Amino acid sequence: xxxxxxxxxxxxxxxxxxxxxxxxxxxxxxxxxxxxxxxxxxxxxxxxxxxxxxxxxxxxxxxxxxxxxxxxxxxxxxxxxxxxxxxxxxxxxxxxxxxxxxxxxxxxxxxxxxxxxxxxxxxxxxxxxxxxxxxxxxxxxxxxxxxxxxxxxxxxxxxxx
Amino acid sequence: xxxxxxxxxxxxxxxxxxxxxxxxxxxxxxxxxxxxxxxxxxxxxxxxxxxxxxxxxxxxxxxxxxxxxxxxxxxxxxxxxxxxxxxxxxxxxxxxxxxxxxxxxxxxxxxxxxxxxxxxxxxxxxxxxxxxxxxxxxxxxxxxxxxxxxxxx
Amino acid sequence: xxxxxxxxxxxxxxxxxxxxxxxxxxxxxxxxxxxxxxxxxxxxxxxxxxxxxxxxxxxxxxxxxxxxxxxxxxxxxxxxxxxxxxxxxxxxxxxxxxxxxxxxxxxxxxxxxxxxxxxxxxx
Lengths: 161, 153, 123
Description:
Low-confidence stretches of chain A: none
Oligomer: heterotrimer
Strand content of chain A: 35-45%
Structural class of chain B: alpha+beta
Radius of gyration of chain B: 14 Å
Mean pLDDT of chain B: 91
Number of domains of chain A: 1
Low-confidence stretches of chain B: none
Largest interface: A-B, 34 and 35 residues
CATH topology of chain A: Chemotaxis protein chec
Distance between the termini of chain A: 26 Å
Largest sheet of chain B: 9 strands, antiparallel
CATH class of chain A: Alpha Beta
Helix content of chain B: 25-40%
Number of helices of chain A: 3
Structural class of chain A: alpha+beta
CATH superfamily of chain B: CheC-like
CATH superfamily of chain A: CheC-like
C-alpha cells in the first residue's frame, strides 16, 4: 500500500463505520482515491476538521443535503426538513469529529504521529465553492441510499519535532 | 470566552490592513452571535491549535475583496479571475493569523494554525464553534470585514 | 429501582445518543455535564451508579475529572464506576486512564451494543 493510502484508509474506514454504527447508513465507496484540484464545488453541506502533529492536514466531508437530513434524523430520532437547521449541522459536525478522532487515533497508535484535532467547522449555502490552498487533497466519492457524499483528505509535513 | 483571547485576532486584522496602507478603519463592538448567518459571500476559516483551540473566520464581499486586495498589492488590477481573488483571501487570512500568533506569543501563548479554507457562496450559514461565536465588524473604505471567533474555552 | 448514570461530554449529540441507549438499558440519566468540572460537581451531588466520561473537553478534561472523582471518593476508588468514552483512543491516554483505575473504555463511534457491553462490565 502506498504511504498516502496508508494515511487515507483509516479515514475512509471510519466514515463507513461511523455512518453504519451511529446513523444506520451504509456507505458504498465508488472507485479509488484520486488527486483533487484546490477548488471544489460543494454538494451542499460541508464539514472540515484540521489536524496537526508530526504531519498536518485536513479532512473534509461533503454531502448532499438529503444525506445530511437523513443522518441527523437517524442519529437524533427527530424529523428534519431543512439542512440549515442548527441541530442538523451540529450533528454532522460532531459526526465528523468522531470520524476524524477515530482515524487520527489509529494513525497515532500505528505511526506515532502525535496528531491533534482542531474543532470542526461546518457550513451550508447556495452555490458554495471551497478553495483549499497549499495542501493538495485526495478524494473518493461515496454513495448511500439517500444521496452522495465525498471524502477529501490532505496531509503535509508538519512543524512539530 | 476570554476577551483577552479575542482582541489579538481583531488587532492583527487592523495591523495587517494598516501595514498595507489601508487606514480610516472603524472598529465595531464585540457581539455574541447565536447563529452564524453570513451575508457576505466570501469567508476564510482558519483552525487554531496550541495554547488556544478554535476557529476564526473572516468574511467579506467579492467586491470588497477585489478593491481591497488591489489596494494592498495582493492581486493585480487586471486580475479579474475569481479563483485568483479567492486564493488572495487565503493569503490575507494567513497574514492576519501570523500576526495574531505573534501578538499571542508576546503574551506568552503559543498558537499554531492550519492552512485556511476559503468558502465562496450565497446565503451561507456556518457553525465554527459548538459553544459560542463572537463577532466584530471592521469597516474599511472598501466595505466591511466581519470577524467571527469561536474558541473552545 | 432504576440505576442512575451521569453523562460528561461536550457534545450534545453524544448526550442524546447515550440517553437513548441508557433508557433502553433501564438506566435513568440523572445528570448532564458539558465539561469535566461540571462533571465532578454533579458527581459529588448526585452519586450516580455509573459515569460516562469524555476525554477531550473544554475547562477540565476527562482524565483530570477522573482524578478529582478518585480523590473525592478516597479509598473507595471510583474508577470502576467510570466508562471513558472518546474519539481519541490513543494508547497513551488509555494507559493514563487505567492508572487512575478506569477499566472500561468505549471508542467512538459506538452503537447500543457497545454501551450495553460496557455497562455489563461495570455492574
